[in-house]
Write a structure and sequence with these properties.
transmembrane, elongated, two-stranded antiparallel ribbon, membrane, single chain, transmembrane helix
Length: 137
């Protein structure tokens, strides 16, 4: 059984990864691009807070982290935020090709969302006592 301290910190660490990714640039000019680059500024070139993804994810993970630290953890909410965040960021990453590509912020945020979903999924399985794969001797 996990300690109460571990239970409270479990969603906080992935949330910190999401928050770090939101403050990094999400779009950049493709380093392999040859030729002229049009002078244009897309939302997300500064940081993820220029996009709806960052505007929604940042306060959401902050609220989930504060709730967990206060001992009122919602594993289902963490799972939903992790999965929906993963899908949304993956879709964003797939939009860019040729001249512009996804930058580090999108990838860091994606990693944080996957970690949040994974932590929540493991805890949901433990909480419900669902059968797990038995290890062979």
């Amino acid at each position: 059984m996990a300690s109460p301290f571990r239970e409270r910190l479990a969603p906080v660490l992935p949330s910190l990864v999401v928050a770090a990714g939101v403050f990094l640039p999400w779009i950049q000019v493709d380093p392999a691009h040859e030729g002229p680059v049009i002078s244009v500024y897309y939302g997300g070139m500064g940081n993820g807070l220029e996009l709806v993804h960052g505007i929604v994810l940042l306060p959401t993970v902050v609220v989930l982290s504060l709730a967990a630290l206060a001992g009122r953890r919602s594993r289902r909410a963490e799972l939903v935020v992790g999965v929906v965040g993963t899908v949304a960021v993956l879709r964003f990453i797939q939009l860019w090709d040729e001249t512009f590509v996804s930058a580090a912020g999108a990838w860091v945020t994606l990693l944080g969302c996957v970690l949040l979903a994974g932590v929540a999924a493991v805890d949901v399985v433990r909480e419900r006592g669902l059968p797990t794969v038995a290890r062979s001797p």
